[in-house]
Amino acid sequence: MIKDDKLSLFRDDNSSHNDWRSTTDVDPKSSLRKQWGLDSAIMSVAASDNTPELSTLRQELETVLHVYTPSLEDAQAFKAIAGAVGRRAARLSAVAIAGIVLQSGKLDDPEAEYIDIGVDGSLVEHYPFFRDMIYEALRAVDGIGSKGADKIRIGIAKDGSGVGAALIALVAAGMEKETSDVADFRDSVKRELESIPALADDSLTSNQQVAIGAGIVGAAAVAALYWARRRNYI
């Protein structure tokens, strides 16, 4: 927007257009001139500053973004744009939360008094009114509405990414162990069966064949018991 000549953001024709009686100047090295250079911290300042002159925001624009002598009109425009970006982020977050809630079916569960959603990140934790904007978006989602949104509780979950990684590692370890147990079970049955003579041997008497058959059944039972114990161990 700074590079668009059709817009007058942070640009004065003369000092009479600036309530500080000075022309606004942006440092050539300002992060405003770089893609992804705007930090959400100053957006938080913009959202929280409701003073008539937006003095706190104007000071931050000069200190952090090196926008010198920004006018009140510039600060108002920055506040409006930052608010729109923050509201969009909250709505995108609400879409993800709504999808999980609707898929879980907990909204229709009479035994579920509340649905607790854990979130992590500096934006949801420190950006003013961010959770309020999430709730506003949730109320507009079909299938949730005001009643469903009141049932959803959003709380801060510290170190969510670390906990999530630990849970994934635990599940992966369990799957690997289960695969190993299946292989052990298969090898155990194979060894038991290989230790029994083939039933096709004509030299065996009927009593011997019966005994062999009982041995196969016993081997299978031992293998099944082994497998059950292994499963319980997991």
UniProtKB/TrEMBL annotation:
- Give a Gene Ontology cellular component term annotated to this protein: mitochondrion
- Write the record's keywords in alphabetical order, separated by commas: ATP-binding, Glycolysis, Kinase, Membrane, Nucleotide-binding, Transferase, Transmembrane, Transmembrane helix
- Boundaries of every Hexokinase C-terminal domain copy: 29-171
EC assignment: 2.7.1.-
Recall the GO molecular function terms of this protein's record: ATP binding; D-glucose binding; fructokinase activity; glucokinase activity
Please name the Gene3D superfamilies in this protein's record.
3.40.367.20
Q: What is this protein called?
A: Phosphotransferase
What is the species of this protein?
Verticillium longisporum
Q: What is the lineage of its organism?
A: Eukaryota, Fungi, Dikarya, Ascomycota, Pezizomycotina
